[in-house]
C-alpha cells in the first residue's frame, strides 16, 4: 500500500465530523413537534408504554392506556423490550414531553456515523472511513427516520458499536474492547430480533473459520477469538432464550409466533417481482445511486474477504445478511412499512468504505511514470483520487436525503400521502 497522507487523513476526519454534525442538525428539525398519524404513532405508543411502566410499576410495555392495572393480555410481546425501557428512563428523568420520546433515537442516530467512521478507519483508513460515514448521513431513509423511536435505530447503533469493539479487539485482544462489542450487540439484541441474525451470522462465520478447508488458508486463530465466540454465543442465548422463556411463561409465545407467521406471508414471491413492486419506496429510501453502490459493494466485499483474506471485512456482510433477512423473509412487513429496509443503510455505509478502499488499491497499482516535482500528489494519487471519486456520488444523494426528510415529516413517516419529494422518488 502506498504511503499514508496525514493531511488527507485530517481532512477526511473533518469531512466525517461535518457530515455527522449536519446529519444531527437536520434530524433534530421539528424535534418538539406533535406526532402525526402514520408511522409516527409508533413513537407515541412507546411513550404511552413509558407512562404505564411508572404508573403501574411494571417492566412489561403496555402501549395503550388502561383504567385498571394492566393484565398479561395487555403486554406487548412481539419484540424485545429494550426501546421501551430506554424511553421509560428518559421520561422519568426529563418528563413526559414529545421531544423526550424522540431523544433516544436521535442520540443513537447521531452516534452511528462516528461509530462507522471509527471502525472503518481501523479497517480501511481515514479517507475510506470518511466516505462510509458520509454515506450513512446522505442515505435518505437514515436521515428521514433518524428520530423514529422504533426498532431499527437502536439495532444499527448497537451493531455499529459492536463492530467497532470487535475491530479493536481483533487488533490487540484487549478485554475492554470485547466488553464494548458485547455491550453494543447486547443492546441491539435487546431491541429487535433482527440483531440475532447479525450475531448468528458472526457465530456461523466463526465456526466456518475453523473448518479445515478454510483454516488451512488463514493464520491460526488466537485463543482470545474462541473466548469471544463463546461469550457472544452465551450473550445471545441469555437474551434470546430469556425473552422466549418469559413470553412462554406469560402465555404469549403463541401470539409472538403467530405474528411472525403473519409477517412472512408471501415470502416466496420472486425477488425480481418484489423489487418491481417496491421500486418507488426503494428509490425513495436509497436513491438509484445508493442502490447501485450497495450492489457494487457486495462482490467487492466478497472478493476482499474470500480472495484477500481480510476477515474483518466480513462484518459488513453480516449486516447485509441481517438487512436482507428482515426485508425478504418478512415480506408482509415490508409491504406495509416504508422503513422496513432501514438496516440496509448501515450496510451501504460500510460498503462504500470498502469500495473506496478497493479503488485506492487499484489506483495505487497503476503503472504511472514517475515525474520530477510531482511530490505528494504522485505519492498519494491513489488515496486522494479514491477519496474524491468516492465522495462524488454521495454528494448527488444528499439533496434527495433532505427532500425525503421533509416528505417523511409531512406524511407522518408513511411517505404515501401529501405529495412526493423532488428528485428520484418523484418519478412514476
Protein model, in words:
The protein is mostly helical and 428 residues long. Helices cover 71% and strands 0% of the residues. It has 19 helices and no strands. The protein has helices spanning 6-27, 40-56, 82-94, 98-124, 126-137, 140-144, 152-172, 175-189, 194-209, 212-215, 223-249, 253-263, 271-277, 279-307, 314-329, 331-336, 344-364, 375-379, 381-410. The longest helix is centred in the C-terminal third of the chain and has 30 residues, at 381-410. It starts with 5 loop residues before the first helix and ends in an 18-residue tail after the last helix.
Figure out the total of helices: 19
Rg calculated over all Cα atoms: 22 Å
Q: How many beta-strand elements?
A: 0
- The general outline is globular
The helix/strand order is HHHHHHHHHHHHHHHHHHH
Q: What gap, in angstroms, lies between the N and C termini?
A: 46 Å
Structural class: mainly alpha
Helix content: over 70%
Low-confidence stretches: 422-428
Beta-strand fraction estimate? under 5%
What would the average pLDDT be, to the nearest integer? 88
Main beta sheet strand tally, sense and closure: none
